[in-house]
Amino acid sequence: MVDLLTVDHLGIGIPRGSNTVALVEDVSFTVRAGESYGIVGESGCGKSTTIRAIIRLLTGKARITRGAVRFDGVDLAQAKESALQSIRGAGIGMVFQDPLTALNPVLTVGRQIAEGLRYHGQLSAADRHARMLEAMRLVGLPDPARIAASYPHELSGGQRQRAAIAIALIASPRLLLADEPTTALDVTIQAQILRLLSDLRSRLGMALVLVTHDLGVVAQTCDRVAVMYSGRIVEEAPIRRIFENPRHPYTVALLNSIPRGSRAGHPLHPIAGMPPDPAHRPSGCSFAARCPNRQTDCEAVAPGWTPDAGGGGFACFHPARAHAEVPHG
Ligand SMILES: Nc1ncnc2c1ncn2[C@@H]1O[C@H](COP(=O)(O)OP(=O)(O)OP(=O)(O)O)[C@@H](O)[C@H]1O
């Protein structure tokens, strides 16, 4: 598979006094065309900040401080706003946790979906209307003509998220960034939206980056996963390896936090303690204070990246033991 998105040594910070506090430190990963890539970790570890930086939609004073984000031969970290505008939508679509943030309360849903075609070639008004109704059918909105004429507050939560997905997909992006797209929804609706995203990804051949704090969601949806902790990727692996042979103690703790017999729909409560405040990270491994495998070297310097034979790797001096490869089938 061809590389579609390469995040290369990305750093994101906010100014504080005369210093910069690093929210994300040195994050690198690659998403291949058509694959589903998960980013998982506890609240505050930098997942949203990382994917918002990809399309330069950081909030407040957060800024990219180093690194590159390559998509289609363009470094989005350096691109001008005009170039970003054409990439947002037609190259990369985005779905947020709360569909209301993506929807304008005073415009009809149909108008907002069709709006995404504004930068997309010379379509007539009739063609735009037809494409809008088609996108609504694609995301499973019932009675598209009626819903197109409705305002966001007239829809259910699940219908709003379907409408937000239609907005993200109308210009046929090759990559969809989804930031906790099911967290704000009822459990039964969560499963439907996840199925919809997986189904659309394979039908449309686009890649998906799915940010979640729920490893059950990752298990159902992703080909590969990055585990983030305190602004860094601490482990990356194909999905099967992460569940069968986790190496980083933080990944092990995340897996142990999923209640037996139920791998979906539960927030992570991995282990006692909290991740460090980004303004006061320790000089060694950020996870050391909570780590059962901690030794004195962990507190001296942050561990580098150890590549794994099966793809991916981990950043830990004292990882969990590797089991023999489980045969496929
Ligand atoms: N614009 C900003 N200004 C200041 N701090 C920020 C900003 N954006 C994010 N942060 C901080 O950066 C850290 C990472 O936040 P981020 O939202 O990326 O984490 P997350 O893993 O996505 O968590 P959640 O699941 O809660 O969204 C947190 O400590 C957060 O408070």
Automatic annotation (TrEMBL):
Location in or out of the cell: Cell inner membrane
GO biological process: peptide transport; transmembrane transport
UniProt membrane topology term: Peripheral membrane protein
Entries under SMART domains matching the protein: AAA (SM00382)
CDD domains assigned: ABC_NikE_OppD_transporters
UniProt keyword Membrane, yes or no: yes
Protein name as catalogued: ABC transporter ATP-binding protein
Organism (species): Acidisoma silvae
